[in-house]
């Protein structure tokens, strides 16, 4: 049996020598409050129910609201639904504005990554995971720099073959491509520690630049304090475009999610994104779709 076939068995939960990337999971038990099922490679419920669980507001320290997120009607109506003629609309939009493929996670004509490390028999990426970089750390500073400060917008620090996400978006809405959306990647504890290789390729990761400060009431190196508002209009606009581009490549609207919600209850979980406003994201997506339809 070839190595790929052996490792496919490992992805199903069978420990085999030679599959060093495999990390075991409890196949029979849903993982976390949103109930990730390692067999079906999805969370509990239909696409909209999953989004409502995965987009619950994230408080400092990674504490999530226990109640499902209230999503704007315009966003709720899209999640999990076919994209229609979104792809040709986006092509015209990108060409008119000279926006390169790298700025949207890769070519609209390329397939998305697939689960189980791009196994062709596994589902295409279903989730767009929103993160914040928590960088730069400003220590005991009492204020945050303005959003156009060069230190807040330097993207080169995130570059490299092991970039932690697919796309990085700075405060000005400019992007750095870490990995094409067609490349399987993992960036959460759920993927790396609990599910293993089966999750590699199921999630697309977008990091939004956000500085952090130390909470004087906390530990010496904590980064609990984030700016308010958390993100800029330019970041919401680019996040909406990335969501649309990834969804166009899949053929239906992806399920958006917060990093903290994926890792809820797992040791080493993160607390991002802080102060992400779903209403502003939905409004940016509405504006984009209105422009595309003209």
Descriptive overview:
The protein has one domain: Lysozyme-like, CATH 3.40.80.10. Helices cover 29% and strands 7% of the residues. The protein has ten helices and five strands. It has a five-stranded mixed sheet with strand order 3-2-4-1-5.
Briefly characterize the structure.
The protein is of the alpha/beta class. About 30% of the residues lie in helices and about 5% in strands. It comes from Scleromatobacter humisilvae.
Q: Mind telling me which CATH architecture this is?
A: 3-Layer(aba) Sandwich
* Count of strand segments: 5
Question: What is the oligomeric state here?
Answer: single chain
Strand order within the widest beta sheet: 3-2-4-1-5
Kindly state the percentage of residues in helix.
25-40%
Beta-strand proportion: 5-15%
The major pleated sheet works out as: 5 strands, mixed
Distance linking N and C termini: 54 Å
* Overall geometric form: globular
Task: Using brief descriptors, characterize the structure shown.
294 residues, alpha/beta, Lysozyme-like, disordered N terminus
Question: What is the topological layout?
Answer:
Layout: H1 3-11, H2 47-54, H3 73-76, H4 86-96, H5 115-118, E1 127-132, H6 150-153, E2 167-169, E3 175-177, H7 189-195, E4 203-208, H8 233-250, E5 255-258, H9 259-262, H10 278-293
Parallel strand pairs: 1-4, 1-5, 2-4
Antiparallel strand pairs: 2-3
Protein name: Lipoprotein
Organism: Scleromatobacter humisilvae
GO molecular function, one term: N-acetylmuramoyl-L-alanine amidase activity
């Amino acid at each position: 049996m070839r190595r790929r076939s052996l490792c496919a068995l490992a992805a199903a939960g069978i420990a085999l020598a030679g599959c060093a990337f495999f990390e075991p999971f409890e196949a029979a038990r849903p993982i976390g409050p949103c109930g990730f099922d390692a067999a079906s490679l999805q969370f509990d419920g239909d696409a909209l129910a999953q989004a409502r669980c995965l987009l619950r507001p994230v408080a400092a320290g990674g504490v999530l609201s226990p109640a499902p997120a209230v999503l704007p009607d315009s966003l709720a109506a899209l999640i999990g639904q076919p994209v229609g003629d979104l792809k040709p609309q986006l092509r015209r939009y990108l060409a008119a504005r000279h926006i390169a493929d790298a700025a949207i996670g890769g070519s609209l004509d390329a397939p998305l990554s697939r689960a189980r490390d791009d196994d062709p028999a596994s589902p295409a990426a279903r989730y767009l995971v929103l993160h914040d970089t928590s960088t730069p750390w400003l220590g005991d500073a009492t204020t945050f720099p303005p959003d156009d400060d060069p230190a807040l917008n330097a993207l080169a620090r995130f570059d490299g073959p092991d970039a932690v996400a697919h796309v990085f978006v700075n405060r000005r809405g400019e992007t750095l491509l870490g990995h094409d959306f067609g490349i399987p990647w993992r960036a959460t504890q759920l993927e790396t520690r609990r599910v293993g290789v089966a999750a590699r390729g199921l999630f697309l990761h977008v990091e939004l630049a956000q500085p952090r400060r130390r909470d004087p009431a906390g530990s010496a190196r904590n980064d609990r304090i984030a700016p308010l508002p958390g993100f800029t209009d330019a970041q919401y606009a680019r996040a909406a475009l990335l969501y649309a581009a990834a969804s166009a490549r899949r053929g239906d609207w992806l399920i958006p999610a917060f990093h903290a919600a994926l890792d809820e209850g797992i040791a080493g979980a993160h607390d991002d994104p802080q102060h992400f406003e779903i209403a502003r994201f939905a409004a940016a997506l509405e504006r984009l779709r209105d422009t595309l339809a003209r």
